[in-house]
Amino acid sequence: MCPSSLAGPDIGTADHPRHDGAETARVLGVARSLTGRQWLERPVDPRTVQTFVQRWELSELTARVLAGRGIGVEDVPGFLAPTLRDLLPDPDRFLDMGQGAERLAGAIMQNECIGIFGDYDVDGATSSALLSRFVRAVGGRTAVHIPDRIKEGYGPNTAAILGLKDSHGASVVVTVDCGTL
Fold first, then answer.
1. Is 118 within 8 Å of 145 (Cβ atoms)?
2. Separation of alpha carbons 134 and 128, rounded Å
3. What residues contact 9, with CB distance under 8 A and at least 6 apart?
4. Residue 117: strand, helix, or coil
5. Which domains are delineated in the chain?
6. Are strands 2-3 and 170-176 parallel, antiparallel or unpaired?
7. Of 42, 50, 109, 180, which has the fewest CB atoms closer than 10 Å, so is most exposed?
8. d(CA 24, CA 150)
């Protein structure tokens, strides 16, 4: 459901004719938003709505919204209760992930310092903090570098990598939230 002025073009189909405004349906008992925009309910197949209600024990309103968003019958549980396991790719699909994980595990077991180079934005700082906390929680040592975006620019740079090595003794460096090289 979306305000008619924000909705895309409604071209209609044989099963769901184009809404011509003649029979404006109220949505949740409201004909217009606070800004005066008319709310239109997306046309949905009533059989799909009924299937959602019966199979997943949903309210009719929830079933209509899901059907209007094009959610498939089998996709309802994952849409209503998403998990990281279902949404994130398998880490082993990343090139050389197994080798990288083994190298980091070895560095932790050998008490080597792990350098962490993060981007200067909130994602980079958070990623750096999370990785550092994890490595320390399992007994490892870390040195974190967040670059000055004015002085160092974007992404890993030679001076920073050498600084992690020379000043902190980092034998391996992990970049987080730095894009791809």
1. yes
2. 10
3. none
4. strand
5. 1-43 (no CATH), 49-85 (no CATH), 91-176 (3.40.50)
6. unpaired
7. 180
8. 55
pLDDT digits (tens, 9 = 90+) for 16-71: 444 444 444 567 778 888 998 988 888 999 999 999 999 999 999 999 999 999 99
Report the chain's mean pLDDT, rounded to a whole number.
Answer: 86
CA dist 127 → 43, 46, 170 (Å): 42, 45, 18
Q: Which helix (H) or strand (E) holds 123?
A: helix 122-137
Q: What percent of the chain has pLDDT over 90?
A: 66
Helix or strand or coil: residue 83?
Answer: coil
Q: Are 118 and 142 in contact (CB under 8 A)?
A: no
Q: How confident is the model at residue 6 (pLDDT cuts 50, 70, 90)?
A: very low
- pTM over 0.90? The answer is no
Q: How far is 136 from 75, CA to CA, in rounded Å?
A: 39
Rounded CA-CA distance 168/179 in Å is: 24
Contact 78, 43 (CB under 8 A): no
DSSP per residue over 50-78, as a string? HHHHHHH---HHHHHHHHHTT--GGGHHH
